[in-house]
Every structure is written in structure tokens, then in C-alpha cells.
# Entry
Amino acid sequence: MFTQILTKQMEQAFAALGYDSTYAAVGISARPDLCQFQCNGAMPLAKIARKAPLAISQEIASELLKLPEAAEIYESVEAVAPGFININLKDSFIARHINTLALSEDLLVESVTEPKTIIIDYGGPNIAKPLHIGHLRTAIIGEALKRLFRHLGYQVIGDTHMGDWGLQMGMIISEIARTQPELPYFDPNFTGQYPSEPPFTLDDLSEIYPRISTAIKEKDENGQPTAQALELDKSAKEATYELQNGHAGYRALWKHIVNLSVGDLKKNYQRLLVDFDLWYGESDSHPFIPTILDILKDKNALIESDGAIIADVSQPDDKKEIPPIILVKSDGSYLYGTTDLATLYQREKDFQPDEVLYVVDARQAMHFTQVFRTAKKHGIVADKTNLEFVGFGTMNGKDGKPFKTRDGGVLRLADLISMVVENAASKIQNKEDIDPEEIAEMVGISVLKFADLSNYRMKDYIFDLEKFSSFEGKTGPYLLYSIVRIKNILRKLEEENNPAGDILSAISSVERDLQLKLDQFNTVLWQTAKDKAPNYLCEYLYDLATLMNSFYHNHHIITESDPARKSSWHRLLQTVLRVMTTGLTILAIPVPEKM
# Structure
């Protein structure tokens, strides 16, 4: 990579002059109109060397040009006020390097030297409830990060961590018991095998939960829970307790609910190209709750407060109050924090991860601060295990508020996907050699995912369907169109039996910029991983596509008369295609052959 090559060169020049080479970093110029690369180390070095920064940069620039390889590398090296070193590379050097990148299997993307194990917790669906728009960002961002870290050589485990064990299970079971009491699951004297098929459908489940949830919240004219609501709430809590404590009939019914729900969840996630390695739920970590409570008890960390069990997580250097974590409620039930600690214990036991990343709504930051502090302070996870909260903002409608249905309800994820796919279908031209439904699906998913990932994850953003479904501008369809254009050109070159040859020196500024942009792929991937910010990769792919389209409009590739130049462009376009396809695959955005 050019910045690494140039930094090593600059370090030699610094060292030869007796200067601290830690200041020798070379970066991409923020002013491409002035130079391609820049070193700013002379400014901070000036205070130590007690020299004018411009004088230092002039010395270093002169020394750099004395290095053995300098004549082949540098078109110009110039010291400018107040102390910058501006660098431009020779076109021949750029071309040789990009040719090496083009011929490499990995596009010169560096792999991690120590492949750590990373668990990414994302998705977080609740069993027996349809996925809604609130599940979108965690799935999209989490999948992109999982694929990115894998691409860089890490061992990555994606876990959806389903909500399959809480009060909503008790609510559903108690409601089925109320409406279908004759089922064997509720017969205390039943001794045979429970039915292998569930006594309800997925549609039934999607109706049962809202019904019981609404009934439990019913209030009288004074704003107090009705007698029926109190009775239903009591039955739900009792059913939850019985389920979690081994009631055979409830467990059998619960398995039916989980199996039906997971099948439907997988279909929806599959449309988003989201795939989990583990389909663990809260139920998988439930057996470890007594263990973590014993650990905390042995560490004298448990405190009784108004009948509840809590643990203090405050630290002397806190700038704001961090409330204690509640582990056991006064009625003996557990909270999400307890389950999350048990899950961390289970993950430590099963996988010994180096890192656990939680891709969760930014509004959950305090909760995970409490969980992480408890786990670290009391040895529930190893000292070496890094726990990180990867928060994100909300996806909003044009009114700036979280997306809702027309009647004000929460929008189902399946309905949102159908909406963007139908919109894409209206813009796809029917051609004999393409499947319009398949292309509409790909384009629609690109609309949804690129719109989300191209925004910095911590910020709320407005989803404007017409804007993000355009084939112009910074959109998923624009990238797909650019890729299909490259594929069309490559097909024509192959039909002409034009071979891909060595990449030659650029003959235009746009060709040079395109070559330089290809070199940045490795840097962008690592910076994206460092900040867990997929928008960096989105921005890069958009810039690369824009340069490629400018290159296409400025050069007549198919009609080029010079065979060597035509073969060079063939290789260059192949490389752009590989980089763009690799980038979109990391983002889990589908790439069509034709459009």
C-alpha cells in the first residue's frame, strides 16, 4: 500500500537526519489538487528539534530524494509552508504497484497476524413476534461487521441471541391454556408423548401475542388495571415460572413456538442475506444464572435492596451516576442484565473469546455499561476479553420520527422489504435475458442496506425511498448499475478475444485517480474494522464507482486501437470489479450479472 511504502521511505529519511521516525507517517493528501500524499511530521518535531518546521521539512524532502529507490518512485517531493511535505508518485510506479495488486489473490488486503476469536451479538429477535423495523439496523450492521472481520482473518461467531425465555412466552402459553384447555400440554396427568405437530400456525402465533399483550394492559375508567387484566398478568407470570422450572407440557409447547418462529425468522433474515452461526436464546444461558449469582455472592458483590438483589457498578472516576444493576427482582424473577451476564459466562466457557461485540440500539448503552462492569469486575469473563458496545441510531421516516405504518403501528420488517422490492420492480426494464423478480429483489435489498450502512451507525437517519432507490447518486442501485456496466464491457472484451494484460501508466488524471483509489482498499477495510463503521467502506465504494464511470466516459475502451492499452484497461476494469464485488459482499449486498 502506498502510504505504508512511503512511510517506510520517510522513516529512513528521518532516521538518517537523526530525527524521531515516529513522526514520519505519510497519509493521503486532503488536498488532491496539490499533491497525492503528505507528511506533516515536521510540525510536531519542530518543538523538539527547536528548528523551524519548514527548515526540517526541507531537510527531510532532500534526504528522501537521496534514497536508492527514489528515482523510480517520486515524481515530486516538495516542502511547503508551514512544514508540510507534499508527495506525488510517478505514473509508472503507480501502475506497477496496481498491477501487482491486480494479480494478487487477496487484492493485497492484509490479514490479521494474530487471528483472535470475536463473538458478535446481533439480531436479537423475540420468539413468537414478527421482526419489525427496529430489528433492521442490528441485522444489517452486525452482518457487515461479521463478514468484514472474517475477511481480515479473524475467527468470528455470529449469535442472534433470541428472546425466547421471558414473560412473552408465559403470556402466550397462558393464553393458549385459557382458550384451548383441552390440549394435553395442560393435563397434569398426561403421561404419553406430546404431539409432534404444534396446535397452532405461525399466523395464529402472530395473533395470540398482540391479543394477550393488549388484554393485560387494559385499564378501567380510573386508569387502573382491570380485574381481568390482573388475572391474565398473574397467569402469564405463573406460566413463565413453570416453563423456566421444567414444566414438561409447557416445555413441549415452548419448543413448538420456538421451531415455528425460528423457521420464519430465517426466511426474513435470508432475504437480507443475514446468517447466524448460533441461534442461541436466553433459554440457553438460563441454566448458568445460579452460577453467576454464586460467583457474585462469593465476591460479596450482592446487595439486598427493598427485597431485590442488586450489585454496585459505580467507579470512583464516574462523571455521571451509574445506577446499580438489578439481578433478581423482589418477586424472584430475573432481568435482562442477569441473562446477559449468564450469556457472557456461557460464551466464556464455550468459546474463550478475545472480544464480544454487541450491535445494539444506542439507547441500551447504560444497560451494557452495567453488564460489562459487573462481568469484568467479578471475573465472569477473563481479563483479556474485550467487551464492546457497538451502538446505532434509529431509522426514521421523512417526518424525522421512527418509521411507522400508516395507522401508526410498528412497521413489520417483511413489509418494509416488500415495499422496497416493489419499488425496485417498478424501475426495472423487462429484458429477455434477465429475471425481473430476481433483479428487483437484489436492487431492493441494495436500496435498504446501502441506505442504512452509508450513514454513520451512531446517527439517526431519514430513509427516503425515492432518494435511496435512485440509480444516480450515493445509492445501492447506482453501485449495482456501475458493476453491471463493468461486466458488460468485460463481456465485450472477452468476445473480441482481447486478453487482460499488464496495467500501464495512466494517460489521464481520471485513470491515475482510479489506480490510486484501488490502492486504498486495504486501508479502508482496516479503518472500517477499527471504528466498526461500515459507512467508510460505503463511501469508498461510491467514490470508486464514480471514478470508474468517469473513466468509462473519458476513454473509449472497446474501440481503443492500441492493443497494449486496451489489454491494460481490461485488467484495470477486472480489478475494479473485484474490489467492488468484494466490498459489496462484505456489506452483504447482492450483485447481479445483468440489469
